[in-house]
Design goal:
Radius of gyration: 17 Å
Order of helices and strands: EHEEHEEEEHE
Structural class: alpha+beta
Number of helices: 3
CATH topology of the largest domain: Alpha-Beta Plaits
CATH architecture of the largest domain: 2-Layer Sandwich
Strand order of the largest sheet: 2-3-1-4
Strand content: 25-35%
Largest sheet: 4 strands, antiparallel
Bound molecules: iron/sulfur cluster
Length: about 140
């Protein structure tokens, strides 16, 4: 089973298109919607996690490309601003995926974008606004 976390941006004419339904039904993918911003007359944005066989993922992404949906890896929309971080570790226990971990020797945190599911739990907790989700 492979996974990809993506941010999809699509024009108004595709807002009504049952994209997630097709990904599930026609491409045999599990679709987990992490965030969504959709309004009928504006551009839509979906932050999703797709899971399935590698070949199914490829076919699903090909389908999105054919629709001319803009696809970006989710990691681009999540930022840890290291220069603002004081390594206070407040966020560490809040992170459900261990995207933020602390090195017990140095007591410094590190951030792994690829583990982040953009749940947002760390954002209000950070006193220094050192984590951003650009969505
Ligand atoms: S947004 Fe959620 S998953 Fe990502 S680093 Fe923050 S708490 Fe962890
Ligand atoms: S809560 Fe903010 S300042 Fe504290 S360790 Fe996490 S990212 Fe750094």
């Amino acid at each position: 089973m492979a996974k990809r976390r993506l941010v999809l941006t699509f024009p108004p004419k595709l807002v009504e298109e049952p994209i997630t339904y097709r990904l599930i039904k026609d491409y045999d993918l599990v679709v987990n919607i992490l965030r969504a911003k959709i309004s009928p007359e504006e551009e839509g944005r979906l932050m999703i996690e797709l899971s399935g066989e590698k070949s199914a993922l490829k076919r699903g992404v090909d389908y999105l490309n054919r629709l001319k949906v803009n696809i970006q890896p989710l990691a681009r929309d999540i930022r840890w601003l290291e220069e603002k971080c004081t390594h206070c570790t407040v966020c560490v226990s809040l992170c459900p995926t261990e995207a933020i971990v602390v090195d017990r020797n140095s007591m410094k945190i590190s951030f792994n974008k690829n583990k982040c599911i953009a749940c947002g739990a760390c954002i209000p907790a950070c006193p220094y606004k050192a984590i951003e989700i650009l969505f």
